[in-house]
Amino acid sequence: MAPFCTPAATAAPHATPIPLTSSRKHIAMCLSPKLGGGSQRARLVSSAAPQVRALSPAPAAEEAAGHHSPSPATVNVEYLAAEFAGHGVGFEPVGGSSCAVKMALSNGSVAHLLLPSGLVTSYKPAMWHGTVTEVLHTNVAEGPGGRPVVRGGVSVDLRCASAAGGWSPNGAWSLRDVRGSPTTSIEIELAAAAARCVVTLHSEALSTEVAVTNTAPAAAMALSCGVSNHLRVSTPDATYALGLQGSDYRSVEPALSEFSIIPPDYGAATARQPAAEARRRWASRGFDMILSGAGRDRLAEEDRPDGEEDDDYKHMTDAMCRVYSHAPREFTIIDRGRRNSVCLHRRGFEELYVFSPGSQYQWYGKFAYVVVGPAMLEPVVLGPGETWQGAQYLRNPNL
């Protein structure tokens, strides 16, 4: 992964994180048996020594946000097009309140990202046969007020908690900068309070890199982050995960976010499986339990793997939802039906999330997908001024 450029972040004078009511149903990507300051899992980057380049500080409007819930300003497509024209990027209004950022490289690879949600809705890498192939799966559903909502794709689920409350930038990203050129790579930098996200379209990969700084002057902050990649497949019955043999796994409930695609009958299909009780145990977890001392002690006692993966060519035909620990930094999803494969590489994340809705649905249909992505079972604890960085790379091995 040496060709990829890794962003860094430094402390900046942002406002106190915005409160957010924590959800007890948010699992898998924000769960931990311990939240003490002594376990930071070697994933912190000192703000005193920025690497490669520093993401610039947030604008004054972010600092003035205070303790109000994040509500992104209306996306001004004409302004964005005039300000960030070129670089191989185009802007298109979507539904009156959103904007599609379209990236295109000279080798044919393209990717689309929505603002202000930050959702990557399309990634079509160039293939060996001279055309491009869509590797992401999305659905359009009806949201509040009857408005259309796009689900699936690549989404970042970032949550933070401290003694003052919780906050999340999810759905409130603003465009900060556009860099690169169609002949090399295109970077889209997003900002939300003390968080930064850089989505980069490379000739052979799509990367998502996240940096978060604890801007509180004296209080520690617990951070949890996960990235969900809804990968399009012909059917899970023709899909295999390569490289997970020997990894510990825990059966969990599906990770829930505004972008998740979960079949309505998934719970009934898995209720009779042996791991159902383990999933129910994990489903009750959330930041409320993690932040309590008694809860941490009980979670530590329960935090045992459900098993060890014994198949290096894991067939994803059955409905499953697991978090893998001690998994390799890179593994591959192969779809025999579409004759396509995608490699996932992660950095800064210790665990791996894997979800399959099962194979009882129509081939190439609404539920013809699998979800994989880096995750956390144990939140990172940031001291004042400290920064965490994490990244994932969807690599196309088919050039």
Automatic annotation (TrEMBL):
Q: Which Gene3D superfamilies does this entry report, sorted A to Z?
A: 2.70.98.10
Stretches that traverse the bilayer:
none
Q: Which InterPro entries match?
A: Gal_mutarotase_sf_dom, GH-type_carb-bd
What start and end residues bound the annotated signal peptide?
none
Q: What is this protein called?
A: Protein NDH-DEPENDENT CYCLIC ELECTRON FLOW 5
Q: Which organism is it from?
A: Urochloa decumbens
Print the organism lineage: Eukaryota, Viridiplantae, Streptophyta, Embryophyta, Tracheophyta
